[in-house]
Amino acid sequence: MSRSFLLWSIVVIIVVLLRTAPAASADCPSGYDPLRFYFNLSVIQAGVDPAQCTSVGQVIQPTSSCTAECSAHTCSASDIINATRFNQCATQAFIDTSTFLGQRLCIVRTPGVTHDHVGSITAEPLFRDLILIAVPSTTVFGGNYSRGTVSNINFVASVVTAALAGSDGQCYRTMYGYALHFAIHALGFDRTQLSKWRHPSNPNLEYAAYDSTTYPYGPVKPWNSESTSIMLPPSTTNLFNASLVDGDHRVVLITPNVLAAARSHFGCSTLTGIQLEELGPSEMHWERRVMNYELMTTEFNMAPSSLVSSITLAALVDTGWYVLSTNANYGAEPYAWGKGWGCNFVIQECSEATWRHAFCNATFGVAHDRSYVSRCGNTLLYDFYQEPVYQHFSNLTLGGWDPYADYCPYAGNLSVVESCTRARVDDNVGTSFSNITGINTLAVYTTILNQTANTLANRDVFLNEPRCMQFLCLNTSHMLFRAGNAFYGCQGQYPALSELTFQPTTHAATNNGQLSPTAIPAYGFYGQIQCPNVSYSCASGSTLAGLDSTTFPTLVSIQPMNASIAGNVTLAVTWSVGLSVNTAVTCKGLLLGGQQTNSSTWEIGGSTVKSSLYFQFER
Ligand SMILES: [Zn+2]
């Protein structure tokens, strides 16, 4: 046996072990084991489903499960799944979904059973004239406390082929989002399973049986004073039925862990329920106005990187069928929308008051996580959406672009004008806004300009296009933004702010004059910036280590460390910065002993800089 063969054998064995090992060990409470969710992909991979398109022009009759408005489907090229391509980019998404769930959810296993939940995946065309992504159905209940154990998820064939047509990464991400979303439906986050949920304090009992006073309708109740007759959201076919789209079909989930997680996330201790979506597919979804960018809002218009929040995990616990891993590494994903925004945000309709800067009421807005700048994309409402709950503007026929967010205007990912993720390409602050892109950039409302190059008719930050700005976190409570080759502190948190002003929340300074002519004129920047919430943007602490040494050198030593000075003198100080400096970086304005340096010289390619301080003593 050759040595290389032996080596390759070992590699293959390791890969096989990685692929077939049970989901990474969740640390489950006593009596529980990690959930083994198995996706059966063999039907798609083998192409053996008689209701799956294999050739153009093929006519497929509706399956028996299609019960209304069904008609035969004539296959087109976009209905035909290429199994090879599916395995290249989609199969791993299903494997990783199983891993994600197995790391977080624990169950009481049924002895002798290999998989705790089998999701059979098909990709049949749709037999009804609908716009859908998938149709999930849980067909077998059993196991502990009568949970679903077998489900079928039919991803609409053309939806799968569209995903497969993307790059490997796009295909993977799209299919991963779909797989995880519909797996969570199959596990119980679904309207058809709601009546079967067990109270987690006693999973032998369904909610109404456990406490009929608190849960007269089970895990949900009508929103506010609405009638119980609106307990079910309209079905997809009624999406555009004016008599049903009245904003009243609102139901809230009121289960104990969901309430606790939501109260903590939103910062609202009196919250009594989380709204469910009243529009679109009727599987069951969080209301997007409240839970935007969360994976269990409706799959329509969903942002690509939507996350699984602590509130969704809590809902799975509140089925009574699952408990969570105790491993802190396998909890909810970091979820920012609405975090700490308070009761008015969750309970009230959206407005500039309740949504703050997430209310995209100008031409442009910033993403909720400040990863991009996009157009607000507001639109005209159809007549049947002109109900009070969908009206947020003085012009009552105007609304945001996303019906699932109740037409609340927000900067969605559909019309991004600038992503704050590009590699740094240039330092063009002298000719335009200070839009340095590269590592550690955030979208912010700002009108900072180099005063020698540009003027603005109106310096109100909310009337101008937000920009990507490079930022620097010193710690979890102090951050700075870069203009030119200097970082400026936010909200007075760092000394010597120069001519930049930092306004916390309000519109201000609509003139275009220089704001503070006495401060560090060498930098030449002026304008305003609306600083983000530092405790959120800098939640991970210092980002100093993330700056490369050529753009932000590390200070190694200073010479002289101290000096006696009498009279009016210039003191030359040499800084050692460790690595060689390849770009001209000015150090004017650095504070030494409380006094700003007034000139400096970099030795390009060297590792030192010399600064001069002019001391003038009054007698
Ligand atoms: Zn869904």
Automatic annotation (TrEMBL):
EC number(s) in its UniProt entry? 3.4.24.-
For this UniProt record, the keywords arranged alphabetically read as follows:
Cell adhesion, Disulfide bond, Glycoprotein, Hydrolase, Membrane, Metal-binding, Metalloprotease, Protease, Signal, Zinc, Zymogen
A single Gene Ontology biological process assigned to it is: cell adhesion
**What is the catalytic activity of this protein?**
Preference for hydrophobic residues at P1 and P1' and basic residues at P2' and P3'. A model nonapeptide is cleaved at -Ala-Tyr-|-Leu-Lys-Lys-
Sequence positions that bind Zn(2+): H181, H185, H285
GO CC, alphabetical: cytoplasm; membrane
Signal peptide interval: 1-26
The UniProt note on the cofactor reads as follows: Binds 1 zinc ion per subunit.
What top-tier enzyme class does this entry carry? hydrolase
The prosthetic group or cofactor this protein requires is: Zn(2+)
**Family of the protein in this entry:** Belongs to the peptidase M8 family.
Instruction: Fetch the PANTHER family from UniProt.
Output: LEISHMANOLYSIN-LIKE PEPTIDASE
Put simply, this protein is called Leishmanolysin-like peptidase
User: Which species is this UniProt entry from?
Assistant: Bodo saltans
